[in-house]
Amino acid sequence: MMIRDTFKALVVEKKNNDLMATVKQLKVEDLPEEDVLIQVDYSTLNYKEGLGFANRNKIFRIFPIVPGLDLAGTVVESKSDDFTPGDQVILNGWGVGERYWGGYAQMARIKAEFLIPLPKGMDTKKAMAIGTAGYTAMLQVMTLEEAGITPGTGPIIVTGASGGVGSNAVAILSGLGYEVTALTRATEEFIHNYLKKIGATEITGGEKWTEMPAPLEPQKWAGGVDTVGSVVLARLLAQMKYGGCVAACGLAGGFDLPVTVMPFILRGVSLRGVDSVSCPIQRRISAWERLVTDISDEVLDSINTTIPLEDVPRYAGEILEGNITGHIVVDVNA
To answer: Is the pTM here over 0.85, yes or no?
Structure first.
């Protein structure tokens, strides 16, 4: 595979307190010195990058930086014994796109220990149609399973269900036979229809989800997948059935948790955190191997929208406003 003389990259620079994102032509020697040189096929756009482009939460830690916490592509050069030219690989997390240059470029240099092989039966486009959102959702499903939550245990609720992680969680759980309720603040009929199409049995929402719950609410859910945090997660915990479990990965609604100990000590409820950024390699591989079969291509087509590199900053703003349904794939070669 030939190395490009020049390639496109979306570069974010900081001047005074303002960020500027520009698609530029770079050379390979412009990339940071890392172990593995990759020709990138696809990346993704996530809520975290939305925060970064908005200059919130100090997501981007170095400047200039090429964002993009995901990528899938083919190894061109490698200083590592673990990868050779022609290998197809996936990257998720590890601070890439925050502390290290990431996937919003046609070429990338990445630390070997951050990469895993592309699973057999999956191509690079499907890998990024799944992306960190689907991979995180799979980790949450695995966490519920490890807590003993099965399809026969009772209904599952997924919060932030119309977003990337939520949509994937709805689809995976439904495909595995769980009865899934989707929680969304969206009231539009087309979003509710979308959630039912990807597997939700019921849709819930409304003002009550912004209000503080009682220490214990009527028992409704055997398990929960939470991407929101704050009052939503507190209400979820107060409504869990005896022995239920919530797998939490996000804080789109806030990082506080105004909850009492009552669900934990009177109903044996568990709250388990799910981290996709620094997740150990073997667990990553297990999650990705399951994703070959545990989410269908048809469902992924419903969840995903593909955009070119130039459109990333605009869509990053939309994702923060809650105007994006599903998941965004970035075709860096479009």
So the answer is: yes
CA dihedral sign of residues 57, 205, 175, 268: positive
What lies within 8 Å, CB to CB, of 82 at 6+ separation is: 112, 115
* Rounded CA separation 68/102 (Å): 5
Domains and CATH numbers, the chain: 7-118+303-331 (3.90.180.10), 131-273 (3.40.50.720)
| Percent of the chain topping pLDDT 70 | 99
C-alpha distances in Å from residue 76, one per residue of 38, 73, 87, 173, 176: 5, 9, 8, 37, 37
Give, in order, the Cα–Cα distances in Å from 134 to each of 166, 190, 219, 249, 300: 9, 22, 28, 12, 10
Q: Residue 1 pLDDT more than 70?
A: no
Q: Which residues pair with 89 in a beta bridge?
A: 73, 117
Cα 119 vs. chain centroid, distance in angstroms? Answer: 18
- 282-332 pLDDT, tens digit per residue, is 999 999 999 999 999 999 999 999 999 999 999 999 998 889 999 999 999
Confidence of residue 98 (pLDDT cuts 50, 70, 90): very high
